[in-house]
């Protein structure tokens, strides 16, 4: 008998990912030029639902990390972050790092991963908390991008929309 035909049309997802400390080297490798030098990290992501309607939940804590980038003359130090993923909404509770004497990067806010039709009531309520989007603030950040830009960057950016289709504004 072929009683399982319905499941093949919309297979269930069950994906669990966990990354700790030195596993961040692998994660950082996904970002061109970014190198994880040290720090503590605890990241877990669970994906459930179906291929057509995946639901992602998880959390990430990063503490006392040092990240190097070819665009920064000095590494990003004291990098810490608390980020949650709840019902496909990414919430940056805190994300902060320093570089050089006065350079500072900070991020906070929330965005849905994608704009999805037919959301549940809980997802719509969670998205209501994302109205302000994510704020990215950069102060006194020294940047050295060879043949592109060399100097200090100050920025206050607002990211709205979704992670997959962001819109940015700011200065």
Tell me what the structure shows.
- The chain is mainly β.
- The protein has one domain (9-170).
- Helices cover 11% and strands 57% of the residues.
- It contains three helices and nine strands; from the N terminus they run H-E-H-E-E-E-E-E-H-E-E-E.
- The chain has helices at 5-9, 24-28, 121-128; strands spanning 15-20, 35-49, 54-68, 76-86, 89-99, 103-112, 134-145, 149-161, 166-170.
- A nine-stranded antiparallel β-sheet has the order 1-2-3-4-5-6-7-8-9.
- The protein is globular and about 50 Å long.
- The model has no long low-confidence stretch (mean pLDDT 87).
Number of domains: 1
Q: Give the beta-strand count.
A: 9
- Characterize the main sheet: 9 strands, antiparallel
Radius of gyration: 19 Å
Overall pLDDT score = 87
Offer a few descriptive terms.
Chloroplast_translocon_comp, single chain, 9-stranded antiparallel β-sheet, 171 residues, mainly beta
Write the layout of secondary structure elements.
Blueprint: H1 5-9, E1 15-20, H2 24-28, E2 35-49, E3 54-68, E4 76-86, E5 89-99, E6 103-112, H3 121-128, E7 134-145, E8 149-161, E9 166-170
Overview in brief:
InterPro entries: Chloroplast_translocon_comp. With 171 residues, the protein is mainly beta.
């Amino acid at each position: 008998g072929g009683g399982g035909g319905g499941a093949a049309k919309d297979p269930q997802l069950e994906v669990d990912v966990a990354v700790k400390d030195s596993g961040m080297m692998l994660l950082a490798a996904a970002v061109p030029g970014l190198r994880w030098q040290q720090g503590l990290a605890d990241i877990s992501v669970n994906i459930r639902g179906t291929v057509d309607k995946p639901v992602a939940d998880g959390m990430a804590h990063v503490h006392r990390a040092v990240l190097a980038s070819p665009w920064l003359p000095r590494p990003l130090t004291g990098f810490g972050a608390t980020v949650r993923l709840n019902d496909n909404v990414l919430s940056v509770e805190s994300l902060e790092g320093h570089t050089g004497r006065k350079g500072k990067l900070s991020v906070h806010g929330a965005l849905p991963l994608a704009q999805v039709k037919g959301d549940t009531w809980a997802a719509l309520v969670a998205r209501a908390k994302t109205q302000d989007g994510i704020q990215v603030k950069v102060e006194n950040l020294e940047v050295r991008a060879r043949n592109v830009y060399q100097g200090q960057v100050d920025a206050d950016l607002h990211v709205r929309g979704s992670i997959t289709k962001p819109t940015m504004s700011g200065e």
